[in-house]
């Protein structure tokens, strides 16, 4: 084993993945849409700073200083903290030119007619009349610099009251920081966030950032680092705490130092080999899968305790004799438990599938290490027989009556108060989710729409995206007029329209001098057509560029416009993507939402993303996972139990032990107000494996000892209680973590383990003796 560990250490790098989407169903269309939303739009790799101060003037002075400082420190290539078009006439002109280029040809023909030599004076007169009658300062400024009315094409964007960079009272400002490197991962993001925090601290120490100004962060990199850090911390503490408690229980039970050290070495060796072997097989280990460490130690210590308990009671046996006696039960138990965990690889949840594979490998490795490493080591230590207490076995009649009472009571409780099924993902988040709190605070202060649903468009080229946008706009207008999708149809580069409009717009651009002369004659000053001149300059450059195609449309070149487009459009090697946010004046009921989803999914390449929509899919996934994992597991365990016992009655007793323990667990959950969810449902196969494990040990011991309850308890029962205690501690330690989903898994599994162990140790022997009628003969 040490040689295997050395080889793996030299050849296998261990990489961790903290992506939250690795925990969600991999074949879910909603998850795919959410993942595309997170990874392809607006700032998928941007940190969003929420900067607040009671004095807006303080923020006015602090924002440019902070942006320049972060840029100088190479923590962002181009921080964005105000409308990128606000101070850039070039960017504004380019975006207007592109919008005109992608308009339907009919709109460009109408513009051409409006600017014909005989009609241009009418256009200029209309603009002057609007200037004279308007009381809106913004409209006056726009019209004074746009005599030909070219900015009207963007009126739907200019009239929006929503400002994504500042609250209405000016006390909250938002800054976007782009990732300064090519590709990000957990460690890269963590280093970046540490650098941002260090630079902010430096500015405060230097007095360049007032103490009254508070800064918090959100964004996808912050979520990843926060999620991964808390998860690794929780699971690491769980693993360390489990190891300490397990060794403490061993010390309290046996008071021996040398075997204690051998047990710790065995657990550490099994854990290291499993981790490296898992990394070699999987390539990348999800942070959630690190929970296997606590689970593996809780399960693997069972075999060590069982071995040492037998050594204490039968110290006269040699290592080979003791191994020959224990090997069948340990290997059968390890094999059945490993099968239970291995079947978790059938789960649609990748993190859970990894967890199952790692624990299954670890159990087999630990069983082998205990039998061929720990057992020979402890046999060579001096035996110190201890006086064992009498078996606390219940009289057979009392055990049967207790079993019947528990069965009826748990059935009644579960029927009256069945545990609920929780499908809301937000109920499984970390308790201290600072990134989510900052996100919600920004949305509230900016008066943003509360909708958390988006339309995601996917296609192999930009032309198909344009068609999908047009079709979606028509269907929403016809069937769902109350829903506003904020579609980027006008902004999206339409290659077909661009090809048709390039030359007509270039022809208009050649008449720039004529338009300037007509504007001056009409009463406009000479600078009034500077914006128009810039727009027409872009039209001429578009005409001279390569002809746009479906996969290569004309795209903005100005950095400000590239940032703007990144908020709703992207293209990668996988294809082209567009995004629109759904909003409604009223909350959509379930029927309307279902009809909307059904209607839009008929459009090729359109998907709806939203955490709320994920709930229904998670319910179906949990049911499907239960069928995919539990049913094959039951079949496999039945076959293994038949091979282990070779008698149908023993197989039935094992299954009944699990059923009774499960019903008691369900009743306890109902009384405690616990609910099932996507995480703790995975406890079912784990509990099935553990319950069968305990029943195998007890029934094989009953056969070996011919029903002698005292000897069964001394050799096996006491060890199972210690094993169950250590396993329950391993899971209960997960229950102390800050992630609600993992905590619920830990609490439910810990309670289930204790229940199943109690049924196996105190009730199963009575059933076995009654049904096998060996009580009289053995006594």
Structure description:
This protein is an alpha+beta fold. It has 28 helices and 11 strands. Strands 8-9-6-11 form a 4-stranded antiparallel beta sheet, with helices on both faces. The protein has a 3-stranded antiparallel beta sheet with strand order 3-2-4, sandwiched between helices. The chain starts with a helix and ends with a helix. The relative contact order is 0.14.
Compute the average pLDDT.
81
Structural class: alpha+beta
Through-space gap between termini: 44 Å
Radius of gyration: 35 Å
The protein's oligomeric status is single chain
Helix proportion range? 55-70%
* Amount of beta strand: 5-15%
* Count of alpha/pi helices: 28
Indicate the overall shape.
Answer: elongated
Strand order of the largest sheet: 8-9-6-11
Low-confidence stretches: 7-11, 774-779
Attribute tags:
four-stranded antiparallel β-sheet; 11 strands; elongated; three-stranded antiparallel β-sheet
Write the layout of secondary structure elements.
Layout: H1 2-11, E1 16-17, H2 29-40, E2 47-52, H3 56-72, H4 89-101, H5 105-114, H6 120-133, H7 137-144, H8 155-158, E3 172-177, H9 186-205, E4 214-218, H10 220-254, H11 257-282, E5 285-286, H12 292-313, H13 319-342, H14 350-379, H15 396-416, H16 434-445, E6 453-459, H17 462-479, E7 483-484, H18 495-509, H19 512-522, H20 530-544, H21 559-566, E8 569-572, E9 575-581, E10 583-584, H22 590-600, E11 606-610, H23 611-645, H24 648-672, H25 683-704, H26 709-735, H27 740-772, H28 775-778
Parallel strand pairs: 1-5
Antiparallel strand pairs: 2-3, 2-4, 6-9, 6-11, 7-10, 8-9
Helix pairs in contact: 1-11, 4-20, 5-18, 6-7, 6-19, 9-10, 10-11, 10-12, 10-26, 11-12, 11-14, 12-13, 12-14, 12-26, 13-14, 13-23, 13-25, 15-24, 15-27, 18-20, 23-24, 23-25, 24-25, 24-27, 25-26, 25-27, 26-27
